[in-house]
Amino acid sequence: MKKYCLMCGALLSDKRGGARFCSLACKNKYSYKERVGQLKGIIDKNKQQPEKENPLEKSLRGVIDNDAKQKNEQASDKPTFNLKNSNSTIDSDFFKELISETVFNVDNKIEHSIDNQNENKQGQDIGTIEPKEIPIKNTLPEKYINKEVKSENQFYKFFLSDLQSQQQRKQKLEQELKTLEAQLKIQEGRSGNELIGIGAGLGSVIGLVKSDENKTKNDAKDYQKKKRKKPQTSVWWDVFKFAIIGAAIGKGTQVLTEDSREKDKQVQIAAIKNKIIAVKQHHQNCIAAINKTKEVLSKTTQYTIIVEKVINPAYEKALNKAVENIEPENNLNGNSKKGLKPKKPATFKSDKIIPATDLAKIDYKAFSFDGLWKEFFGCPAVNFHALIHGNSGEGKSTFSMWFARYLAENFGVVLYVSGEEGLNKTFKDKLIYCKAEVEDFYVLDVRTGDELINEVGVNEFNFIILDSLHDMEIDAKKLKAIFERYKNTAFICIDQNNKKGDLLGANEKKHLVDIVVNVKDYIAETTKNRFKAKGVSFKTADFTVNKKGNKGNEDNYFDPDNID
After folding, report:
1. Whether residue 355 sits in one domain with residue 389
2. CA–CA dist 79, 83 (Å, integer)
């Protein structure tokens, strides 16, 4: 039904089902007035206009509505509020006036009672005296104060970052300049004398190697001829001799290549000098940029002061203290509660958070199952979700057909989606065997969950049976989407077992449903039930679908494996 804000009377059409207020401000005002016993002009929540009923609820039968009965029994005890001569909206200065009248007149009330006693004594001699008007004292400090907030200037931050990058570039240019100057010094010192040294070094190495070869050959000859070993020249003589030869060759090379070496030297020196000039120019430009940035930075303020209007902490402290010390005269029932400190109003960011007392008042309808069906399932909600799984040929589809017949005969419109067998002869034999050719029972031949969504409209059926999830390629994600689309419809889902005897695939499907039934060897057992204790088991043949739920005739029962 339509909901209205209990404080201002605004329509709550866009709110959730359990909402009572249009905003947090209305909720706090209502809670405060409720504590101080001044709920005048508030809309009576018992006089809200009924909304249009759900189309599916009109076709439901056998539904338990205990909440309505409890409401009728408690109607006489609940307080009602007269809406005559009252405004449906609350004045914007309501809270300020309420504080001034109830909180900050505590001292005035005491003074007023003393003055009345003195006036009554004097009134015996003088006569009647008009009541003395008591001025209202408002001791609340200013609600808002100006607060200076220090914020870093973004321009200053930008220029500072630019200055740091320029200083780093300056250091790189200085390092590069030092390297170029060192290279220039090396090029200017080139004279060709290094060729003589190189030639002498190579000659020494050659002489050393040659001396070792001659010594080895002479030793071998002496050994073969068995002659006495002759004294040989020193090794260093060979080294010196070849070093002189190498130095002479190096000198000759120096003389022959003097012109070309000098030309190459001048080219290298010119190139290095050009690089030095370019680097020095960049260095000077960088220094100029640094000085300019420093000048701009010196004229830019690092922080900006922003003045914001914020709530005065002293105001909040005084207000909370005043609310805690309120002594209400009467509550909703008219009974005095002097000496009890009222609780602070609970405030939350989200309006989806509701008190448990409000949840307890929400109406939830349930089916009045009876007989064996009640012993097995309990009394589930009108939009319950059940999952029946088992191995192939062990009775799960036949059990679901009996359950569908029971629902169609006693509670509402049923749609049986035959996604495994289709509308073939085996399905027809199963339908006839279970005597499910009854009114309000319909069948549909689709093979996927997407086809189901395309063929079945919202709020067309009270119950939808999906046989089976595996053959219709409906996983947990798809099943959740189907439940969200058909929120007012109860679902009975059938699925296969794996080799271990458990539900095929992930167990996420079990978390999406309220009831889980495992059918094994023609015995149905509840492994999960939110409406009754789990672990209840019966033979599938015990479920004959009649109103009283009596046990079936096992003598006429044949093996469901032939049709399942």
Report:
1. no
2. 13
Q: Kindly tell me the burial class for residue 58, based on how many C-beta atoms sit within 10 Å of its own C-beta (0-12, 13-18, 19 or more).
A: exposed
CB proximity list for 127: less than 8 A, separation 6 or greater: none
Q: What is the DSSP string of 383-407?
A: T-EEEEEE-TTSSHHHHHHHHHHHH
User: Cβ distance 394 to 538 under 8 Å?
Assistant: no
The reported pTM is: 0.44
Whether residues 57 and 177 share a domain: the answer is no
The parent domain of residue 292 ranges over 156-299
User: Could you tell me if residue 510 is inside a domain?
Assistant: yes
Residue among 369, 321, 508 nearest 61 (CA): 369
pLDDT digits (tens, 9 = 90+) for 100-135: 444 444 444 444 444 455 544 444 444 444 444 444
CA distance 429 to 423: 10
Pick from 553, 345, 383, 413: nearest CA to 485: 383
Burial 525-562 (b: 16+ CB within 10 A, else e): ebbbbebbeeebebbbbbbbbbeebeebeeeeeeebee
Please state, in angstroms and rounded to a whole number, the distance separating the CA atoms of residues 485 and 449. Answer: 12
Phi, psi of 3 (to 5 degrees): -115, 140
Q: Point out the domain boundary residue: 307, 342, 360.
A: 360
What stretches in the chain show pLDDT beneath 50? 41-51, 75-92, 94-95, 98-115, 119-137, 329-339, 545-561, 563-564
Nearest 5°: CA angle at 209, between 203 and 213?
Answer: 140
Domain presence at residue 522: yes
Q: Are residues 439 and 485 in the same domain?
A: yes
CB neighbour list of residue 119: distance below 8 Å, 6 or more residues apart: 129, 132
Nearest to 26 by CA among 50, 10, 2: 10
Average pLDDT of every residue of the chain: 75
